[in-house]
Amino acid sequence: MSHRASAFTAERLLHILQSFPAVNSYVVAFSGGADSTALLHALCAIENQLNVPLSAVHVNHGLHDDADHWQLQCEHFCLQNNIKLACLKVDLTTRSGKGLEAEARHLRYEAISGLLKPGAGLLTAHHADDQAETLLLNLMRGSGIDGLSAMPDSRTLGHGVLQRPLLGFQSSALRDYLRENGIEWTEDPSNQYLNHDRNFVRHEIIPLLEQRWPEVSKRLLLTRRAMTDARLLLEGLADDFLAQNLIHPFVLRTTSQLTENTELFKLVLRRWMKQAGLASIPAYRLEAFFEQVGHSGADHKTAVTWGGNSLRLYRHQLWLQTGTDILPCPDVHWPEGKPETDLGGDIGQLVLHTQDQPADRSVPTGQTTPAGEFSVVGRNSTTEAAIYQGAHHKSLKNLFQLADIPPWLRDSIPLCQLDGELVAMGDWCFSEQFAAWMSENSIRLSWHPRNPVLQFIHKQQHPEVDPVGAVR
């Protein structure tokens, strides 16, 4: 967003906020420093024109001896201006190895996001100088076009949205505003510590660049704007591909266009991971994965893992797994006369119901189950390797292949046994004996998986019906 006039005023702030997507409340991230103090004071001046409630939140990191005193100053400022203030404390004693700055930022946003109600807008005081510093820092980290676009004007955060209305103003303009209005602010001495990367860029690198290229921050912002335009164009290209080939949020169809073009491959997968809310795949792993996919046959399985997530290739499709693996189907005895059985969180339920009943409604208790020992097992819990259909039998391996079920998900597909003999895979493949029993009794077997990937597999076996979710 461009603002030709460099002076910061409450009226200009109101104009910027009106250009942002509407929210149902504003929460200001208030540290007590110059930037957030200018933002909150200006908001107080236009509070009646905001038409939504205004409050503030202060995060106490406890890193400095004066941290509690700074919190008291924030409380005093908000009390004077009749602003509701929430104070949060974060514990930085347990580190993730990201570095102090990154860890503090992560915990700060994590704490605040938990405070935001649906539709709320968190306002931060990031300004043009911060933007220029971020671009330089990302350049030093070897960031791609996303990093060189620096900070966006807004993005989602928890149930709300984070908005940065000051990106068009220099820090000096915000301090001029405070002086003109006789407003004091807190100076954090750690902002001078050069062992922090951002402080080093702010106090050493940018002033040196300014000597050679005056107004270097404005020049860097021109680069940021060009990178943002390029990013939006590339995101549109990736979105077009995903719209045509993302057959499920966790399943992407590959094409020769994708597997023969490394730039498109990396672009699409990064965009997919971003839309899924996951960390991007490390560049070197993404490069190696592209090479593997390009040299893999239709049935060859190859994978990349990162941060607890994985992508696997099977039959020209990429399957995304987030977090823990899907649990295998447990072994469950199906008591005689019971119309349904629960198989756990991921696997869901198997239900026996009459032909004229909805698939999510079981037969009345007391109606018979098949005569004999009726049970549900997973693939690894049975010695049976086939389902018999008259004089012929079909191996489980072939049935899984015909159903296009990837090998790593086959243990999660429920198998029904009657007196130790396999009679059903899921609710789409039955032995001749079991199919005859269901027909004679006007009974159907329906599976209701709860995991989204298993729901997708189930739908693939029943393309003529709606996807089956959790039992209603």
Q: How does this model look, in words?
A:
By secondary structure, this protein is an alpha+beta fold. It folds into 3 domains: 10-212, Rossmann fold (3-Layer(aba) Sandwich); 246-321, no CATH class; 332-461, no CATH class. It is built from 16 helices and 21 strands. The protein has helices at 10-19, 34-45, 47-50, 67-80, 100-113, 128-140, 145-148, 171-180, 197-212, 216-245, 256-259, 262-275, 283-294, 396-402, 432-440, 452-461; strands spanning 25-29, 54-60, 84-89, 120-123, 154-157, 160-163, 246-248, 251-253, 303-306, 309-314, 317-321, 332-333, 340-342, 349-354, 374-377, 386-389, 392-395, 415-418, 421-425, 429-430, 443-448. The strands form 5 sheets. It has a 6-stranded mixed sheet, with helices on both faces. Strand 5 (154-157) and strand 6 form a beta hairpin. Helix 1 (10-19) packs across helix 2 and helix 2 crosses helix 8. It is elongated and about 90 Å long.
Can you say what the CATH homologous superfamily of the largest domain is?
HUPs
Mean pLDDT: 88
Contiguous runs where pLDDT drops below 50 for at least 5 residues: 1-5, 467-472
Question: Main sheet: which strands, in order across?
Answer: 3-2-1-4-6-5
How many domains? The number is 3
Termini gap = 47 Å
Instruction: Please tally the β strands and state the result.
Output: 21
Under the CATH scheme, which class of the largest domain?
Answer: Alpha Beta
Radius of gyration: 29 Å
CATH topology of the largest domain: Rossmann fold
Structural class: alpha+beta
Q: Estimate the helix proportion, in percent.
A: 25-40%
Please tally the helical runs, counting DSSP H or I stretches of 4 or more residues: 16
CATH architecture of the largest domain: 3-Layer(aba) Sandwich
Sheet of most strands: 6 strands, mixed
Shape: elongated
Tell me the strand percentage band.
15-25%
